[in-house]
Amino acid sequence: MTLRIVRDVAFASLVGFSLVAACGGNDEGSSKSGTGGASTGGSGTGASAGDAATTGGAAGIGGAAGTGGVAGAGGSATGGTGTGGTGTGGTGTGGATGNCGLCPGGAPVCDPATNLCVDCVSDADCSGNGVCNPATKQCVECNADKDCPTGQKCSPAHQCNNSCGAGGGNCGGGNPVCDNGVCVGCTSDTNCTNTGQPFCGATKTCVACKTSTDCKQAGNPACTPTGQCVQCTSDANCTNGQKCNTATHDCVQCLSSANCPTGQSCSPGGECNPSCKSNTDCQNGGRPVCNLTAGICVECVASTDCKDPQNPVCIASTGRCEECLADTDCKDAQKPHCLPGSFQCDECSSNAHCPTGQVCFDGECQGG
Asked: N or C terminus: fewer CB in 10 A for the chain?
């Protein structure tokens, strides 16, 4: 089965920021010292230290440690010294690199562990589109045999393939080899006869490369862990100060607005463009509305901005006009359920919507 590509990655992220960006805001905790007594600072992102103690009062107590600050910088501060004592400021814990902001369609979920925009962090993010692979943070057909229809098993490539016995009688097509009871693409390089995919990868599928030395095509010198030759897997593969968008494996001008000169923001395509202050700054590129908080031109900030009857609902978290946000937005009786990750109406968004013995994958009931 082939996963549905549910988003246009090129039309993607907001809040500054492209496909890989920092989750969360930067609300700061604050503290005030009381007259003649200690005060306690509130927790926040990069909390600031307490004010100096008042004359004759006890020391002001600095704010508690904040959770990671934006763009990977946790706040740290030391309380001021006052007559009567010294306040001690809290130290914030630095956030991971990246800028989630409003995540794009191709990677709509912000991973709190890394502050990166990903496909999923839990199975709930893959409703109607399989389950979440915790290693790759991508929606896949299966993580275990129980995720597959009757008669199929979960392969190392996280695909539901036919189960097989010693003779491998059920195997064929793109999965001709029986391996540990499941049909797979290969168990050795000799099974891979396609010149474009001559190697047997770790997931028992034929792939283009095992290491970057296998990538001979100009412009695609790097090998991904899944065996694809791409433009980049790190900034080291990019030139002229460009950054590697590890979600798309493309070299781009920016990953976040921090990579852009003052007065510019990182566009969904990874380019530094002038920031917007009103809708009049957003007259090009099909994004006519200025998200004033982010300073980025988007499709919409409210459903009233969505003029296409096929995509009448504004998804505030992405700034895009989509088909649905809830089942009530789906008017076609054949497609009554809204898929959370793709915001499209389809046959099912969970196994409960399918007949017994079938599973919901890519919005359709399959198997049985």
From this structure: C
The whole-angstrom separation of Cα 171 and Cα 251 is 40
- Residue 189's CB: how many other CB atoms inside 10 A? 13
Separation between Cα atoms, residue 234 and residue 230, nearest integer Å:
11
pTM confidence score: 0.53
pLDDT tens-place string over residues 224-279 = 988 999 999 999 999 999 999 887 788 989 887 888 888 888 876 677 877 889 99
Residue 351 Cα to chain centre, angstroms: 24
Contact in structure between 156 and 136 (CB atoms under 8 Å): no
275: its two tokens: 């920031």
**Angstrom distance (rounded) from CA 41 to CA 76:** 13
Query: How buried is 260 (Cβ within 10 angstroms: 0-12 exposed, 13-18 middle, 19+ buried)?
Result: buried
Tokens 């008042």, located at residue: 54
Give the span between the Cα atoms of 245 and 232, in whole angstroms: 8
Total residues belonging to the chain:
368
